[in-house]
Recover the amino acids of this structure.
């Protein structure tokens, strides 16, 4: 445990940010699952869900949650999956 006041603050802030990041990553994974479910039930109605997922991936990149190439790879795979289903 740190003794210096600023170091104590950094520990608290790091913990808070890790919780926020975990929550945001979980929400991103949930949106990816929702797209898969929408695609399985009705491929034509999955288009707006795909748009939301792509936007969520772009926001995750902007926040630094995932690497931009990882997001690009996921978007590409999701789009291919959508086009194949439709």
């Amino acid at each position: 445990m740190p003794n210096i006041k600023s170091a104590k603050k950094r520990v608290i802030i790091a913990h808070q940010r890790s919780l926020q990041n975990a929550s945001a990553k979980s929400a991103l994974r949930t949106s990816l699952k929702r797209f898969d479910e929408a695609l399985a039930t009705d491929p034509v109605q999955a288009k707006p869900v795909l748009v939301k997922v792509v936007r969520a991936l772009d926001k995750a990149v902007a926040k630094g949650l995932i690497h931009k190439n990882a997001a690009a790879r996921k978007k590409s795979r999701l789009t291919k999956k959508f086009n194949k289903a439709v």
Q: What stands out?
A: The radius of gyration is 17 Å. The longest helix spans residues 5-41.
